[in-house]
Amino acid sequence: MGAARPCSGLSSSLRFFHPAVPNPVLHIAAILVSSLLFGGMTLFSFGFAALLFSALPAAKARTVIRQAFPHFYLFVIGTAAVAAALLVPVDAVSAMALGLVALTTVPTRQVLMRAINAATDAGDQAKFKRLHGLSVAITLAHIAAAGWVMARFVT
Fold first, then answer.
1. Which candidate, 106, 81, 76, places its Cα nearest to that of 96?
2. pLDDT tens digits for range 73-121
3. Is residue 16 part of a domain?
């Protein structure tokens, strides 16, 4: 049995992660936060909303989803911004992509979401459908951007 080697720090003990990664702890944090963003957006968009409308009467589901969306958008803004900041020294292109996700979510939350709610309150279904379609397209683009960033980690 050999003598125990002194611990040389977390960063050097993670060299197995990838030899070209200068700061593996930062790299791992960037992967985890990017994964949280991708998974959170995907779960909310395809799981939570569908569950609400299948488990609750339509009027109640609309009320709950309307209350949930501001929090969802804050989650996207915050998580995308943190992921972008962590990615700056790791992958500047991915950092810019997630920075754009954070930035474009602000008007989606502050302008588009309110316009959708106003169209709903006014009973203007045509306007609602158009604006809701735009919000869905934006969210799908954000999910695709986060997925693209995740794919860059494995190549």
1. 81
2. 999 999 999 999 999 998 999 999 999 999 999 999 999 999 999 999 9
3. no
